[in-house]
Each structure stands twice: as C-alpha cells, then as structure tokens.
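Translate structure to sequence.
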C-alpha cells in the first residue's frame, strides 16, 4: 500500500484514514484518478472550515480494474494495515465493486465510487453505505446512444457487452429504450471469445455496432472483426472512451491478431467515442472558480 496525504502530518490533528483503490497497472489507466484524489486531500487538509481538527490520509492499493483485487485490498486495508478506516474511495470498475460493496457494509465503511457505473449499486437495500460521484451508466451512456440513433435515423443496430451482471443490466436498459423508437437491436455477450458473435453480426448485415466493454474485450472484438472482414467505411462502431490512448496498438498475447492487424482494422474504421462528462448540473461556482456547462440529451 502507498500513502497519500500531500502534506506533512500535523501531530496536533487527529488522523483519519481512507482506503483508496485505484486502477493503475492493468486494464484501465486510472492514474489520473489518483492525482485527483491527491489534490482533493490537499485542498481539504489546507482548509480551516472543513474538518479543522483532522488530517485526511489515504492508503491506496492498485486494484487493476480486476474483479478479485478489490476484495483482497479491502482485507489488507481493514485487517492487515492496522489503521482504522473511515471510508473507502473506489474501486473504479463495476465487477470488482459488486463484491466489495457486499462486504464493506459489515464494517460500516462509507464507500465512495468515482467511476463505477453499474445500476445494481444504486440498490440501497443491498448497498446502504455506497455512494458515488458519477451517474449510473443507463443514463450516462444509453441516453446519448439513443440520441445518436434518433439523430442519424438508424433502425437496426447491435449492442455487444461483457457477460457480467452489471453490463447485462445496461444492455437490457438499452434494448428497452431503443424499442420505444422501433429500433431493432441484436444483443451479444462476450465470454472467452468473440468469434461467433462477430460472425453472427456479419451474417445479419448489421452496420451499426455499440460496444460497452473493457479495453481488452474491444481488442478481442476488433481482432475477430478483422478476421471476418467486418470492416470498412460503411460500418460504424460506437465505443466508450475510457480506453487508453491508442489502445489497439497495445500488444495483447491473449489474441492471435498482431498490433499491425489491429491497426489495419481500427485506423480506417468509422468510430464514435462517447465520453463521460462527470460535472455538476447545479450551475454554481466551484472551488476552482468555474461553472460547469452540461449538455443534456433528451430521448
């Protein structure tokens, strides 16, 4: 575990320990989240009107956007470290949060999520100590997806997601919203391979494909699309933009496509990225002295 408090420990103040779970080394590059947390701690610790008698200190683990790492990190934070935690910040990816949230409540740990979109985490009966600073994915992604469909007049699309429960819920919500506008949706779930799913979409002659996956799944999908020749300027891919920069050029030994083959597939393709604008809609001046400008998609 690494320590963050961004200031010399003030022995006159009572330390409050926060357990941080950041995706740093594998999957999604969340190093910017760590920087933001460091800045927030610095801001709070330097203010006299917020917790003036306390010093916030974060001990963080690299949870790698993995399903099993957060639970192990929770054990290290609560049992091994020796410091009593008042809250957990993270983790970032929904599959790992599902297990952690079901456990952290037994320690009455406030769990603050900054990037986990799963709708299941909004169930207060199951997750009474979980709060988040970002909207759920059914609103953040699906509403702009439906806006794109209506704006461009698409009537037949595909939606590919992981087979994890949190992803399936988002896919089901997408299908329900699309059906209200008479849009036909072919749904596919990614398990260990995407070969059959890509071949089916090609046989159905579907040209608009929405992906809601992690980065390595996208490489798998585009690898199979390359081998199936599901490519060209008449195919539109809509993807989330939490992937790393030039994600298709990252060597992935799990698949049998080279970096050059993925580049040949991805770079000429028509790809629309949908990003998350995690800003306030309150129209109030922030600590930084700026006001958020938010575009609302009406579907």
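Result:
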């Amino acid at each position: 575990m690494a320590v963050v408090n961004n200031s010399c420990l003030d022995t006159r103040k009572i330390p409050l320990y926060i357990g941080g779970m950041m995706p740093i080394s594998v999957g999604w590059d969340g190093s910017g989240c760590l920087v933001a947390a460091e800045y927030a701690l610095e801001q709070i610790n330097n203010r006299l009107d917020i917790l003036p008698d306390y010093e916030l200190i974060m001990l963080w683990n690299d949870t790698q956007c993995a399903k099993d790492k957060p639970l192990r990190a929770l054990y290290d934070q609560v049992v091994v470290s020796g410091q009593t935690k008042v809250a957990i910040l993270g983790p970032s990816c929904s599959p790992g949060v599902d297990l952690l949230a079901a456990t952290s409540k037994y320690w009455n740990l406030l769990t603050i999520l900054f990037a986990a979109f799963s709708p299941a985490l909004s169930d207060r009966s199951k997750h009474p100590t979980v709060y988040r600073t970002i909207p759920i994915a059914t609103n953040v992604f699906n509403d702009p997806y439906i806006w794109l469909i209506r704006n461009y007049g698409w009537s037949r699309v595909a939606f590919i997601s992981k087979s994890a429960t949190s992803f399936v819920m988002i896919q089901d919500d997408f299908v329900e919203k699309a059906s209200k506008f008479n849009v036909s949706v072919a749904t596919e779930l990614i398990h260990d391979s995407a070969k059959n799913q890509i071949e089916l979409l090609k046989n159905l002659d579907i040209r608009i494909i929405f992906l809601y996956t992690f980065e390595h799944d996208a490489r798998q999908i585009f690898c199979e699309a390359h081998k199936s020749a599901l490519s060209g300027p008449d195919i539109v891919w809509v993807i989330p933009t939490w992937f790393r920069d030039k994600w298709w050029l990252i060597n992935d030994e799990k698949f049998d496509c080279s970096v050059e083959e993925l580049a040949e597939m991805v770079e000429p393709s028509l790809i629309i990225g949908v990003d998350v604008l995690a800003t306030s809609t309150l129209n109030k001046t922030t600590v930084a002295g700026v006001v958020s400008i938010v575009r609302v998609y009406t579907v």
